[in-house]
Design a protein that fits this description.
CATH topology: Metallo-beta-lactamase, Chain A
Radius of gyration: 19 Å
Strand order of the largest sheet: 6-5-4-3-2-1-13-14
CATH superfamily: Ribonuclease Z/Hydroxyacylglutathione hydrolase-like
Mean pLDDT: 94
Structural class: alpha/beta
Bound molecules: zinc ion
Largest sheet: 8 strands, mixed
Length: 285
């Protein structure tokens, strides 16, 4: 009996010392009839996978070049066999880099991107991969609605054309509504685009916000965060990145707005599940 008690004590002690799991838990598979949103941990970059209640698969961005295989593995583990809609928010490498690998790994039905080009090899690789899939790119811009059943998914940005040097402001911004729950995915849209979205009078208010540009203070103006009024804010960011993302300013703006902040550098992949009425959150670590 004493031995057993000691063993129990030892187990309790062990569990208390290893406060966080020794191995990261794999994200749970999407639940049928619900909307699942996975902010995949791709270091300094973005990759978001959405499973709609109707069973359609959406991917927004694919991380940088070296994360293409990681995203493919993650999607396979989550049961993805084809991708109905792929969205490239803008041509920067930390968003579009992994897309060519993903395009060659899965059957992709449709690709959406803003009508802006880039001269990098990474962006050319993406265009070549789209061409190899015998697809053309559909324009992502404010007012375009994705042909999906069971949810409403509409682009609220970009609302206009920007200078080629302002690639971030070209970011395709998607708002997804499932019953009473809403999500806003902003890519790297900065304050100029945020102001234009506010002026456009489109509904921006959302329960969950993918914070623009990895928490940089060139995005997330006080006015924009006020307009979105998120309950949850997700920052997709690499640990110890050289950009200083997220900035104290952005974290303060979100705190003042009473948003609960999740970061992929701290929590790994972050999963939101919406049943149309309530939202639950799970983190990998
Ligand atoms: Zn970025």
């Amino acid at each position: 009996m004493k031995k057993l008690r000691n063993l129990t004590l030892a187990t309790t002690l062990f569990a208390s010392i290893f406060a966080s799991p020794a191995y990261a838990a794999a994200p749970t598979k999407p639940e049928k009839g619900k909307l699942s949103v996975y902010f995949l941990d791709v270091g300094q970059g973005d990759a978001t996978y959405i499973k709609t209640p109707n069973g359609d698969d959406i991917l927004i961005d694919g991380g940088n070049n070296k994360y293409g295989d990681t995203v493919v593995d993650d999607l396979k583990k989550l049961g993805v066999d084809d991708i109905e809609i792929m969205i490239s928010t803008h041509p920067d490498a930390d968003h579009v880099g992994g897309m060519d690998t993903i395009l060659s790994a899965f059957k992709v039905e449709a690709v959406y991107a803003p009508k802006v080009s880039h001269t990098t090899q990474t962006f050319k690789d993406f265009l070549t991969a789209v061409k190899n899939e015998k697809l053309t790119i559909k324009e992502a811009k404010a007012g375009v609605t994705l042909p999906l059943k069971g949810i409403t998914a509409t682009f609220v940005g970009p609302t206009k054309e920007y200078a080629k040097s302002d690639l971030n402001d070209w970011s395709a911004v998607l708002r997804v509504v499932n019953g009473k729950n809403s999500f806003l995915f902003t890519g790297d849209a900065e304050q100029k685009s945020e102001a234009d979205m506010i002026s456009s009078k489109a509904t921006l208010k959302s329960d969950v916000l993918k914070v623009g540009h990895h928490g940089s203070d060139t995005s997330s103006s006080t006015a924009f965060i006020k307009a979105v009024a998120p309950k949850y804010a997700v920052i997709s960011v690499g640990a110890k990145n050289s950009y200083g993302h997220p900035t104290a300013t952005t974290l303060n703006t979100l705190k003042t707005a009473n948003a609960t902040v999740y970061r992929t550098d701290k929590s790994g992949t972050i999963t939101f599940v919406s049943d149309g009425t309530k939202i639950t959150v799970k983190t990998e670590k």
